[in-house]
């Protein structure tokens, strides 16, 4: 089976991308489960806007979904260089996994650059890539949860660690 990778970023501290791997046979079930997470007034899950008790609830829920995640972290000085390096590493990993698609949470300020990097890095594969807003695909919310927890460190990182299967330290 060829997984899809759902990707979000965090820029506070070291730049990082988190990629949640969702197998084709999991997609429908995981999507349906995650759609039940937002409260009535919410259109999506975004960890920076949640209370700590709610964050714990969300993390515990994510741990039950049967997905894994990989973290790509760069220590490059500029976010642009770090993002480029992480995207290249992500593309290489997607090729290793024989992924079907990479879905990245859209940041309008870098979409053009992302497309250029991915077009080049994936040119010899049939892997699709697209940018979507967080509200457009609930599986991006899982990547947000992992990115937020990983960047916060300590207790939060420890809580999400069970689904993080690999950490890639990306050099420039």
Description:
- The protein is of the alpha/beta class and 172 residues long.
- The protein has one domain (4-170): Nucleotidyltransferase, domain 5, CATH 3.30.420.
- The protein has helices spanning 27-35, 52-63, 79-97, 111-121, 139-152, 154-160, and strands at 4-10, 15-22, 68-74, 101-105, 128-132, 164-170.
- It has a six-stranded mixed beta sheet.
- Helix 3 runs parallel beside helix 4 and helix 5 runs antiparallel to helix 6 (154-160).
- The radius of gyration is 15 Å and the shape is globular.
- The termini are far apart.
| Oligomer description | single chain
Mind summarizing the main beta sheet? 6 strands, mixed
How many strands appear in the DSSP assignment?
A: 6
State the shape. globular
Rg, Å, rounded: 15 Å
How many alpha or pi helices?
6
CATH superfamily: Ribonuclease H-like superfamily/Ribonuclease H
Task: Please provide the ordered H/E string of secondary-structure elements.
Answer: EEHHEHEHEHHE
Q: In percent terms, what proportion of residues is strand?
A: 15-25%
Number of domains: 1
**For the residues shown, what is the average pLDDT?**
96
Helix content: 40-55%
Spatial separation of the terminal alpha carbons: 32 Å
**Uncertain ranges:** none
At CATH level 3, the topology is Nucleotidyltransferase, domain 5
């Amino acid at each position: 089976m060829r997984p899809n990778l759902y990707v979000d970023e965090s820029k506070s501290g070291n730049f990082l991308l988190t990629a949640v791997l969702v197998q084709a046979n999991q997609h429908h079930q995981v999507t349906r489960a995650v759609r039940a997470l937002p409260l009535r007034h919410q259109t999506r899950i975004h960890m920076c806007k949640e209370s700590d008790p709610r964050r714990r609830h969300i993390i515990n829920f994510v741990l039950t979904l049967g997905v894994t995640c990989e973290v790509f972290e760069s220590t490059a000085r500029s976010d642009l260089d770090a993002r480029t390096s992480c995207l290249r590493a992500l593309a290489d990993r997607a090729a290793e996994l024989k992924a079907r698609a990479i879905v990245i949470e859209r940041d309008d300020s870098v979409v053009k650059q992302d497309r250029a990097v991915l077009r080049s890095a994936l040119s010899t594969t049939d892997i699709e890539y697209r940018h979507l807003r967080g509200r457009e695909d609930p599986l991006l919310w899982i990547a947000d949860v992992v990115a937020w927890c990983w960047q916060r460190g300590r207790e939060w990182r420890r809580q999400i660690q069970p689904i993080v299967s690999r950490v890639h330290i990306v050099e420039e």
